[in-house]
Amino acid sequence: MKIKQSVLTFVILISTFLIVKAQTAASSTSTDNTNKSEITFETPVHDYGSVYQGANGNCEFQFTNTGKEPLILSDVKTSCGCTVPSWPKEPILPGKTGIIKVNYTKMNTPGIISKQIAVYSNAKNGTIALSIKGTVLEEPKINSPEKLVNDGATPLAK
Fold first, then answer.
1. Among the CATH numbers 2.60.40.10, 3.40.50.11260, 2.10.260.10, 3.40.50.300, which is that of 39-134?
2. Which of 87, 56, 60 has the alpha carbon at shortest distance from 74?
3. Edge-to-edge strands of the sheet including 97-104?
4. Which of 5, 40, 72, 132 could form a disulfide with 66 if both were Cys (CB 3.0 to 4.6 A apart)?
5. What is the pTM of this model?
6. What is the Cα–Cα distance from 32 to 40, expressed in whole angstroms?
7. Residue range 30-58, pLDDT digits in tens
8. Domain chopping of the chain, boundaries
9. DSSP string of 3-36, one letter each residue
10. Rounded CA separation 113/139 (Å)
């Protein structure tokens, strides 16, 4: 009986020791974000303003890695298929800049533009939301000049 108690006590002590050791290790590797990458955009919104049908739907969002580690953009997702992003796939070193290019493909359709872009990265400031906005106006209709008719004119002789 004493051997079983001794073994049980030993197992409890070892388990307690391992739990305390694991908690100490976890707290020493806390989520210290001071040395991580950080993404900073010049502006998070691109405003096309009011444009006529057929205008260029391309725009760019410039950003800088203001952190201390390389910045990696893992994904850039848009709120619909009419907004197509492209982004750098290579790491952006601290202090360096990059550009996310966006093409809004519905510039031939009159209406309001309001689309969101989510930027996923390893930055300490997490997922960043960008947006594009504006209004596509219907192309103005230009009346063709009417032919002037002069009934009193004298025909030219041939």
1. 2.60.40.10
2. 87
3. 39-41, 58-65, 97-104, 83-86
4. 40
5. 0.69
6. 19
7. 456 667 999 999 999 999 999 999 999 99
8. 39-134
9. HHHHHHHHHHHHHHHHHHHHHHHHHHT----TTS
10. 16
